[in-house]
Write a structure and sequence with these properties.
heterodimer, A: 247 residues, alpha/beta, Rossmann fold, 6-stranded mixed beta sheet, 4-stranded antiparallel beta sheet, 10 strands, globular, B: mainly alpha, 86% helix, 0% strand
Chain lengths: 247, 246
C-alpha cells in the first residue's frame, strides 16, 4: 500500500464522556480512511458523534481508545510540542462559530498562525494578503471581525486555516451559522480550494448542499459509521429521496 | 509501521525549531489586547488601582505619624538643649499636643499605629479579592480565544506568556496610578491639617519606599491572580476550551 494514499486513518476510535455516574459513548468504534486530496463530508443528525469525530481527527481531544493516524503518524504518540506543530502546519480548522480572535483585524487573524510557524512579519503579512485575496476579502484587510458579516468572517477563517499550507482542512459545520446563499458561497470556496490547492477537506455537517460537491459522504449514527457513499451513487438517488437518508 | 518511526523522529526535530512566539510579538499582541478591550481593561485596572490606593493611603498615614513623632522628638530635644530659639506656630501646636502627657501620648500613637497596620492588612486582603475576581473573569471570558489559538498551533506556554505580559502590564500601570492617587490625597489632607512641616527628606524617602512596595504588591497580586486560571485554561484540550460558553 502506498503510504501517501491516506492522509487520515482512524482505527477503532472510541470516545466516552462521563457525566456524573453515567458514561456516554459518543464514538463507538470508528474505522475511517480518508484519501489524500478528497472532499469528504461527515453527515449525521446532531448528537450522532460527528463533532466528536471531528475533534478526535483534529487532535483537539483525546479519544478514550483507538487511534488516529495523520500522514501515518499515530497522534497518541505525539507530545505537546509535536501536537502543536501538527495543528500549526498540517491541519487547518474552520468552525461553525468562525472563532476569529475578536481583538485582531482580518489580516492579523490570518497572520497569527504564520507567527507561530516562525515566519517573518513581512512574509506573514504578504502571505495573509495573498490568502485574503484568494477568499475575496482583499478590500477588508483591516476590519475587525465584528465589522464583517458572517460570510465574510467565515472567509477570514478559511484564509486563516490555509495560512501554513496545511494538507488537511477540518471544517465543523462551516455553513451552520450562515444563510442559504452565503452557505453556498462558502461551500463553493471550499470546493475551489480543494480542486485548486489539492487540500484534503473533511467537513462535519448536516447541510445537504454539501452532498453535491463531496467526493464521499460518511453517515454517522449513534457513534458508528452508518454507511459510506461515493458521490456518483448519491447523485442517482438524490431525485428519489428528500433530505434524511434511509437505510 | 516501521516506516512511521523515522518520520516521527524528523518531525520531532523540526518542532523544536519551528513552533515559536517571539517575545516582541507576544508583547505586541498583549498590548493590543489591553487596548482593544479598553473599557474592560479600565474596570479590571480600577479594581487593582482602588485596592492599591487604599493600601497606599493607609500606609502613608502611618508614615506621617512616624515622621511626626520624630519631629516632635527632635524639636523637644533641641529646645531642651537650648539650640532652638524660636519655634514656629506649627511646631508649637505639635509639641504642645504631644507633651501634655508624654506617656499617654506615646501610648496613643502606638495604638494608632497598630490600628493602621491592621487597616493596611485589611486593605491588602480587599485588594487581593478584587484583583483575583477581575482577572479570573478576564481569563474565563477568553476561553474560546485560548482554544482557538491552540488550534492554530499555540503551545500552552504561549498562552501563559500572553497572559503573563498582559497581567504584569495591567498590574504595574494600575498600581502606579493607584499609589499616586492614595499618596496624593493623603498628602493633600495632611497639608491642610498639619501644615508643611512633615514634608522633608524623611517624607520623600518614605514615599519612595511605599511607592516601590505598592507597585510590587499590586503587580505581584495581579500576576498571581491571572496566572493560575491562565495555566488551567492553557492546559485544557482545545475542544474543551472551545466548548465553554459564558
Amino acid at each position: 500500500m502506498d503510504a501517501n494514499e491516506y492522509v487520515v486513518r482512524t482505527k477503532g476510535l472510541v470516545k466516552e464522556y462521563t457525566m456524573g455516574d453515567q458514561t456516554l459513548r459518543a464514538l463507538n468504534g470508528v474505522d475511517l480512511d480518508i484519501y489524500r486530496g478528497e472532499y469528504i463530508s461527515i453527515m449525521g443528525p446532531s448528537g450522532s458523534g460527528k463533532s466528536t469525530l471531528f475533534n478526535a481527527i483534529g487532535g483537539l481531544d483525546k479519544p478514550t481508545s483507538g487511534s488516529v493516524f495523520i500522514n501515518d503518524v499515530d497522534m497518541a504518540q505525539l507530545d505537546a510540542q509535536e501536537l502543536a506543530y501538527l495543528r500549526c502546519h498540517t491541519i487547518g480548522y474552520i468552525f461553525q462559530t468562525f472563532n476569529l480572535i475578536p481583538v485582531m483585524t482580518a489580516l492579523e487573524n490570518v497572520t497569527l498562525p504564520t507567527i507561530f510557524a516562525g515566519m517573518s512579519t513581512d512574509d506573514g503579512i504578504e502571505r495573509g494578503m495573498e490568502l485574503l485575496k484568494i477568499v475575496g476579502l482583499d478590500q477588508r484587510l483591516h476590519h475587525k471581525p465584528f465589522e464583517l458579516s458572517g460570510g465574510q468572517q467565515q472567509r477570514v477563517a478559511i484564509a486563516r486555516a490555509l495560512a501554513n499550507n496545511p494538507s488537511i482542512i477540518l471544517a465543523d459545520e462551516p455553513t451552520g451559522n450562515l444563510d442559504l446563499k452565503t452557505g453556498q458561497e462558502i461551500i463553493a470556496l471550499l470546493k475551489r480550494l480543494n480542486v485548486e490547492q489539492g487540500v484534503t477537506i473533511i467537513s462535519a455537517t448536516h447541510d445537504l448542499k454539501m452532498l453535491d460537491i463531496s467526493d464521499r459522504i460518511v453517515w454517522i449514527r449513534d457513534g458508528r459509521i452508518d454507511k459510506l457513499e461515493e458521490r456518483k451513487n448519491i447523485e442517482l438517488k438524490m431525485g428519489e429521496m428528500e433530505g434524511e437518508p434511509v437505510h | 509501521m516501521s516506516v512511521d518511526k523515522p518520520s516521527a523522529h524528523m518531525s520531532h526535530k523540526e518542532v523544536r525549531q519551528q513552533i515559536k512566539l517571539p517575545f516582541s510579538k507576544a508583547v505586541e499582541i498583549s498590548l493590543r489586547s489591553i487596548k482593544i478591550r479598553f473599557a474592560r481593561s479600565i474596570i479590571t485596572a480600577a479594581g487593582i488601582m482602588l485596592g492599591i490606593a487604599f493600601f497606599a493611603s493607609v500606609r502613608m498615614s502611618a508614615e506621617f505619624s512616624v515622621i511626626h513623632e520624630k519631629i516632635v522628638h527632635e524639636t523637644v530635644a533641641a529646645f531642651q538643649a537650648g539650640k532652638l530659639h524660636h519655634i514656629t506656630e506649627d511646631q508649637t501646636r505639635m509639641i504642645s499636643s504631644a507633651t501634655t502627657d508624654v506617656k499617654a501620648a506615646q501610648q496613643d500613637a502606638l495604638a494608632a499605629r497598630e490600628r493602621l497596620d491592621w487597616l493596611s492588612i485589611m486593605a491588602l486582603i480587599v485588594c487581593t479579592v478584587g484583583i483575583t475576581n477581575a482577572m479570573l473573569m478576564s481569563v474565563t471570558e477568553r476561553y474560546k480565544e485560548i482554544g482557538t489559538m491552540k488550534c492554530l498551533g499555540a503551545l500552552d506556554s504561549f498562552i501563559v506568556k500572553l497572559f503573563f505580559i498582559e497581567s504584569c502590564l495591567t498590574g504595574f500601570i494600575s498600581s502606579v496610578i493607584g499609589f499616586l492617587l492614595g499618596w496624593f490625597i493623603i498628602s493633600l489632607v495632611h497639608i491642610f491639617t498639619d501644615g508643611m512641616l512633615a514634608f522633608g527628606a524623611q517624607y520623600w524617602k518614605s514615599s519612595l519606599t511605599l511607592f516601590g512596595l505598592s507597585v510590587l504588591i499590586g503587580t505581584f497580586l495581579t500576576f498571581i491572580a491571572t496566572i493560575a486560571p491562565a495555566v488551567r485554561a492553557a492546559q485544557m484540550p482545545p475542544a474543551a476550551a472551545l466548548r465553554v460558553e459564558i
